[in-house]
Every structure is written in C-alpha cells, then in structure tokens.
Amino acid sequence: MTKIRFVTDSTCDIPTDLIEKWHIGVVPAFVNYGGESYADDGIELIRAGFYETLPSIDPLPTTAAPSPALAEQVIKATFEDAEHIFILTAPAKLSGIYNTLRLAATEVLPKGSFTMIDSGTVSMALGWQVLIGAEVAAETGDVAAVKNAIERVREESRLYGALATLEFLRRGGRVGWASASLGSLLRIKPIISVEDGEVNSLERIRTFSRAVNRLAELARQHAPLDKLAIGHGNNPEGAQQLQDLLADIAPPDTILFSITPVIGVHSGPGVVGVGVVGKSWRQ
Amino acid sequence: MIANTRLLICDGYVLKSLAQSGLSWLEHNQERINQSNVFPVPDGDTGTNMYLTMRKAYAAIENINSRHVGYVSHALAQGALMGARGNSGVILSQLWRGFAEALEGRVAFDAPLFAHALRMAVDRAYRSVVDPVEGTILTVARESTEAVVAAAKNEKDLLILMQIMVEEAQASLARTPDLLPVLKKAGVVDSGGQGLMFMLEGMLLNLQGADISVIADVVSSDSRWEDALVPDDEAGYGYDVQFLMRGTDMDVDAVRKAIDDMGWSTLVVGDAQLIKVHVHVHDPGQPISYAIGLGATLDDIVVENMQQQYEAYVSARQQQEVHVHTSVEDVAVIAVANGDGLKQVFITEMQAAAIITGGQTMNPSTEDFLREIDALPNNEIILLPNNKNIILAAEQAASIAKGKRVRVVPSRSIPQGIAAMLAYVNIRETSGNVDEVAAAMRKSIDDIVTIEITTATRDTELDAVQITTGQFIGLVDGKLVAANDTIETVVRNALYDAGADERELITLYYGDGVDETQATALVELLTDDFAAQEFDIIPGGQPLYPYIISVE
After folding, report:
1. Chain B residue closest in CA terms to A164
2. DSSP assignment of A12-40
3. How does residue A141 score in pLDDT terms, banded at 50, 70 and 90?
4. What share of chain B has pLDDT > 70, as a percent?
5. Higher-scoring residue by pLDDT: B334, B427
6. Which domain holds residue A82?
7. Is B538 within 8 Å of A186 when comparing Cβ atoms?
8. Average pLDDT, integer, range B507-532
9. Distance in angstroms (rounded) separating the CA atoms of residues A168 and A61
C-alpha cells in the first residue's frame, strides 16, 4: 500500500468536510480588485458576501494563479503525510495554476513522487476527479490504479452551467465567443460547458427557468449517475429547482454547494451549475 | 539626452533604485499592458499581474540598504517568487531568480557579469515553462539578452548596454505578432513581453536621469488602442535611421552628441574607425549629411518611415473590426424589419445575412425577397417575414426561387422573429440542413407572446373594445385588448392580458418617437405590478409602434 494524498486548487469547490476527510491540500487561487489581492480560501473571501458585492465592483475583479511559494507550502505540508501525491488542477488553457503547481512540485518533491493531472475542467467536475481518486487510493493504495481511475472519470464527468448574465464572462475576457457580438444588445442566459480546457457555449436562452430545464436535460444524458453535484452563485432557488428536476436520478451522496468566488468572477452572480459523473466509468 | 558619466559597475544601491523605477514604470503602464493581453488567455490582467509581482519583489528590498548586489538581488527574487501572479508574473519571478543566482556572493556586477546573469535569467525562465512559446515574454527576454551578450564583448558601459537591451526588447516586442498568430489576429503585441519591456525601459529612464515619479499619468484607464498608439510628438513618429560610419580618428562622443541633438532614441557606439549610428528623426537627411560632412564613408544605410508603419498598423486594425456573418456553406436568414435598432438586433446580434426594410404599412413584395435571395451567395436560405401580411409574399418567393433551397418560417411579429433567430444561432453550428434549422426556428416562435402598442387612426369598436382616434391601443398576438389615452395604462393592461405576471422576461423595443428615458420611466411605473419579472429595454427605432413588447 502506497500512502497517496491529493493536492488541488480552490476552483475545485469540494466541501470542507470532504477536504478534511481525505486530507486534501488546496492551493488557493487569487481574486484581485480595488488594488488588493485576496486568497480564494473561504477566509479572505466569503462566498455569499462576495456575490452580493460583485456587481458593484468596478473595474471587474480579475483572477490570478497563486505564487509558486504558496503552492510549495501546501504541497510540502501534504507530502509530509504521504509517499505519493496526485496534483489535479484547473485547465492550463484557462489558468496559470497548473503550471504554478507543476513548478512548485518539481521544486520541493523528489522525482517520481507526484503525478500532475490537468483535469480539463473546474468546480465539482474537477472535485469529483479528486474525490473518486481519493476513494480509489484508500481502497487500493496503488498509484497506477488511481491514475487509471481518474483518467476514466475524466472522460465521464461533465460540468454544465446556466449563467444569469453573459456580462461577466464577456468582461472576464478568457472566453473568445463571449466577447463576440451575441448577447450585447439582448439579455442572454447562455448554457455553457467546461471540457478539455474549453468553455463552450451550448445554447443561448433568454429565460432562466428554461435554462435550468435545459441543464437538467443535459445532466440526464449521463444517467445513470455515479456522482452529482449542484452548485450556485448566490442563487439557492435556482439550485433547488435543478435539484427537484433531478431528484429521481440523484445518487445518495449528492452535493449541494456554493460556487467559489474565483469562478464567480467569470460566471457572475446567479449562476447555477451541475457537475456529473456517469456510472459508466466503473465498467 | 544621454548622461555623459559612464556606469561601469552596478552595486546593491543602484539595483534597488533600478528595481524601484522598473516598478513605477510598470505601474504607470499597466493599463496599456492589460489592453493588449490576448495570450494565453485574453483576460486583460497581465499588466496588473506583472505590477503586483514586481510590487511584492520591491517590497522585499524596500527596507534593505546594502551595497551587496548579491544580497539585494536574492531578496528581490524571493519577493518576486512570493508575489508572482499569473503566467507572466511567474516568468518574471523566474527571470529575477536566475539573475540572482548568477550574482550570488557578488558585491557588484560589471558588463561581463551583467551579460552572464541575464543569460542565467533567461535559462531559468525557459526552464520554468512546459512548452516555451515564442512570441512571448520569453522571446523578448531572450533576444534582448542576446543583444547585451553580443555588445558586452566590447562595451563596458552598463548604461549603453541597458540602452541596447531596451532597444532590442522593443524590436523583439514588435516582432511578436509574426511569431504568434493570435497576436497578429488581435493586432497587438505580446502583453507579457510588453510588461518586461516597460520594466526595462523604466530602469533605463532612471539611468538616463529621468525622474519617473513626476511623469504625469497620461494613459487613462479607458483609453483605446488607437490612443495608446498615437505618437507623443505632434510631428508624428518620423524616421528610423541607421548606418555605419567608417573613417579614421573619429570622435565617438562628439558624434553621439551631434546626432542626439537632431532627434531622439539615439544610440551611437563604436570606436575611432567604425561607428554604428541609430537615431529617430523627422529629417533623415540631416544625420546622413552630417556624417558625410565629417568625411566618413557610410555603409548599411537603413531608413524606415515609422509614421507610415504606424498608419498601416492602425488601418490594418480598423479593417479587422468589420464583422462577417455568414459563410457560403451556412444556412442564411433574410429577415424583414424596420427601424435601425431592430435591424441591428437581427444583423449584429442574431447574425441574419440580409434585412429587407418593411413592416405593417410597408409590405415587401415577392420580388424584393427574390432580389435578396439572388444576391446572397448561400444556397440554403430561410425567410423571416415578421408580419402576418408579409408571410404570403415570402412563401411565394420561396416557391419560385431558382436553384436554391428556400424555406419560410412564418413569424407574425418582430418578437417571434427574434425568438426564431435565437433558435437559429443555437442550431446553426451543429446543423447545416435548412429543413432542420427551419423546424427548430418554427418551434421556438410559439414560446413567446407579442404585444404591439400603437395609436388608433379612427373611431371604432373592435374586439369589443371602444376606441377613439388618437388613443393608444394595445394588441396581444394581433388581438386588440386595450385602449386608453395613457400609454402606461394600455401597456399594463396588455401585459396582464398576455399573462406577463406569470412569466419571466418582458422585453420592450421602443420606437422612433420614444427615447430611452421615456422607456425607462415607463418600466419604472410597471415594476410594482411586475416585480418578479425581469425587464429588458432595447432601442428598436420602428415607426408607428411606440412599443413592441415580448413576454416569455
């Protein structure tokens, strides 16, 4: 049995109790505004309060990867209790976090004692890769088995979101199509997916209830579900509506969560999202 | 412009002051850098990230007063590592780290050690990235370093070397769009490279004796790229002149002073037999005549019109801002609309290929449709009449159009047309089949209710509503439901009739007799009745109808 631990970044949205249960090291990303830089660690940035003030922050906050030094601290601390570390992060195509953690790990860990994985996605679609990885690690203690499981989970996991407004994605500037003209005159509530490091526009919808219905349809395409997580950016009613629509296919360990500010800067307030893993990865 | 004192060594005090001026110049230019941020992700914060990184780096040495350059640079690099933000910030921190490693244990550096430390810095930076991409901050760091390494073989003056470094950083930066297509497409230079260049330029300005802190903040945060590029000098960018002078017993310092009096960005290096001249001037003849007048032989003369390069760049960028909506392979839409705002919604927002001006009192003919069908290169076309009186003409045109597959989506109002267009933009990327696209569009037009507000042209009783000439009347899906002298009352009654209190989104397209203030004021009056609904106010500019409203 190899003692295996996990390091990820704060875009993973894993609830605190599970982070503690699996001793997961979480490196915070940063949100910059008003000339200051805040760690997305649940202490410097409080979720509910942040979404309430977000629309009035001008210019819009930006997000940034953590410093390599901070990443080194978290990695070192997690490694103290382990023989091998899996490092799963937000996609390198969207963020500098992957590279920062890679640099930090190379600096402080012995060669061969860690595995870097670009999850290709964020929020609980990343979170599920970490949590299932942790479950498999506890069962097998085998680095190759964990790696294999994560790769299969990665194929079967999806993240869908219904944005209440396109405004923040557009101003955030990380997504090319959002900057295009669509949605600049009319209010649009886009349905997006985050997959292989790309934020895709699946549909443009004008009313939020129809957008949530569409989210439920998209989640259903992956049933039977192994894992389900429903998140929101200060929109508990929207999350509840989605939960009701998916009640019949929700696994017992379904997670309801509040989306972390680093993602909220880009999604804007009001977002409802769903992270699913299809059961088929176990076959 | 150039200080006459030579700078042969740099100690901890000088490095600290250089770091401070690099930081100030980064801060001063951070918005400009943010604006050119497109690679790897166009999030417009590279300038901020590099500034924050450098601020933390400087904070680490702010209270250190040491002559020992190795000690100061180590602290600076530690600070940068702690403060590194974003891709470019991390690379910047690695540059400082490599630089500091080379200076470990040294009290000061001279030209050869400077060149060595820069090379170490670039090595570190390249190793910090999985797949180094050229056309980025890495390229700018490497090429400017290579220029210093080459020059340091003969040149001992650190000021001159710094000048060479900045010149090459600028040149390298200008070449980044040739290396990285995404930059060329966006018409910008690499933002990380730009940040590095500004940091180096700030250091150079310090060495040249400029006090950066007193330079007024001329780049406002909302300035556009055109503004950022406008030359500082009213006479424009002028000419870039470079040549080699060959002779005997030439006085380099005298030549430098004379050339510098003629223009700016002067660089004159060499010895009694060979001098390299580089200068920006408005009259390129002046430095050349001067050199010949000294009896020198001129070689490698290069004169570039920088104003022309700048104008070509600006014009190329402006060209790119024209949008193209349809490619020939796509299913194209021809929509009928009247009013500038509505046309813009169909064209810009919804990517219709063509608009035929028309509506309630101006019904386009079958021929009008046929003309537009012929004019489009597309073979598969959908017609959106957006009025019940225009549907027939459209169907007629579809049936007689030759050689093209034309379908009609029978939209009876502008809101129906817009709902259909939304379905069009959703499906066009995944389906190239005109029947599939038309079916999706048809399905969507039932999702919304249309309200039209206009004025009565005669006294009458219609649909059991008594109306007098000049009154406002409201129609819900074509059926008259309200008449009143006050527009607010008509709109409110029509909204209730349309079931808006149970729906989610109310969109008002205001007509050409209404301005935005009036439309906003009307919505204010309605929010008590429709508190749970979201309102969207769009300038439509349509004639005859003060408001066209969709409820969904």
Report:
1. B534
2. G---HHHHHHTT-EEE--EEEETTEEEE-
3. very high
4. 87
5. B334
6. 4-155
7. yes
8. 95
9. 10
The per-residue pLDDT for B290 is 92
Which one has a higher pLDDT value, A258 or B329? A258
- pLDDT by residue (tens digit) across A106-119? 999 999 999 999 99
Same domain, B186 and B155: yes
Which amino acid is it at B514? Answer: V
Task: Name every chain A residue with its beta carbon within 8 A of the beta carbon of B534.
Answer: 187
**Are B107 and B170 in the same domain?**
yes
CA A217 – CA A237 distance, rounded (Å): 18
- Interface contact B90-A102, CB threshold 8 A: no
Q: What is the CATH number of the domain that holds A230?
A: 3.30.1180.10
Q: Are residues B196 and B250 in the same domain?
A: no
Q: pLDDT digit string (tens) for B130-153? A: 778 899 999 999 999 999 999 999
B128 has a chain A CB within 8 A of its CB:
yes
What is the distance of C-alpha B344 from the center of its chain? 22
Q: B442 and B458 in one domain?
A: no
Among A99, A187, A207, the residue with its CB nearest the CB of B129 is A99
User: Would you state the structure tokens that stand for residue A160, as one six-digit string?
Assistant: 């869908």
Query: B42 touching A, CB under 8 A?
Result: yes
> Is B552–A207 a contact, with Cβ atoms under 8 angstroms apart?
yes
* Confidence (pLDDT) at B300: 73
Number of domains in chain A: 2
Q: What's the rounded mean pLDDT across residues A131-148? A: 97
Q: What is the mean pLDDT of residues A39-55?
A: 86
Residues of B with Cβ-Cβ distance to A64 under 8 angstroms: 45, 49, 52, 85-86, 89
CB B406 within 8 A of CB B397: yes
Determine which of A272-281, B314-323, B418-427 has the lowest per-residue pLDDT on average. B314-323
In the numeric block, the tokens 């002149």 are attached to B241
* C-alpha torsion B468→B469→B474→B477, nearest 10: 100
CA–CA–CA angle A260, A262, A268 (5° rounding): 85
In the predicted structure, residue B320 carries a pLDDT above the cut 80: no
**Contact state of A64 with B348 under an 8 Å Cβ cutoff:** no
pLDDT tens readout for residues B106-138: 999 999 999 999 999 999 999 877 778 899 999
In a domain, B378, yes or no: yes
- Chain A residue with Cα closest to B51: A35
Please give, rounded to a whole number of angstroms, the shortest distance from the CA of A106 to a CA of chain B: 10
The answer to whether B505 contacts A62, with C-beta atoms less than 8 Å apart, is no
Domain end point (choices A155, A182, A212): A155
- Does the complex come out with an ipTM higher than 0.95? no
Same domain as A120, residue A24: yes
Q: Which of B48, B86, B422 sits opposite A204 (nearest CB)?
A: B422
Is this structure's pTM higher than 0.80? no
For residue B269, give the H/E element and its range. strand B264-270
pLDDT level of residue B232 (50, 70, 90 thresholds): very low
Please report whether residue B347 resides in a domain.
yes
Q: Are residues A146 and A188 in the same domain?
A: no
Q: How many CB pairs under 8 A join A and B?
A: 112
Q: Is B132 an 8 Å CB contact of chain A? A: no
Residues of A with CB below 8 A from B505's CB?
Answer: 187, 206-207
Q: B86, A181: Cβ pair inside 8 Å?
A: no
* Nearest 10 degrees: Cα torsion A272, A273, A279, A283: 170
Beta bridge partners of A201: A192
Mark which residues 26-45 of A lie under 8 Å from B by CB.
30, 32, 37
B41 to A181: CB separation less than 8 angstroms, yes or no: no
Domain match, B436 and B514 both: no
Q: Are residues B208 and B175 in the same domain?
A: yes
Domain that holds residue B152: 10-220
CB contact under 8 A, A93 and B128: no
Q: Are residues B472 and B437 in the same domain?
A: no
Asked if residue B457 and residue B432 are part of one domain, the reply reads no
- What b-and-e string marks burial along A159-178, b requiring 16 or more CB atoms within 10 Å of the CB? bbbbbbbbbbbbbbbbbebb
Contact with chain B for residue A95, Cβ under 8 A: yes
**Average confidence score pLDDT of chain B:** 85
Structural domains of chain B, count: 4
- Does B168 reside within a domain? yes
Which residues of chain B does A263 touch, with a Cβ-Cβ cutoff of 8 Å?
Answer: none
| More confident position, A15 or B272 | A15
Choosing from A96, A120, A155, the residue where a domain stops is A155
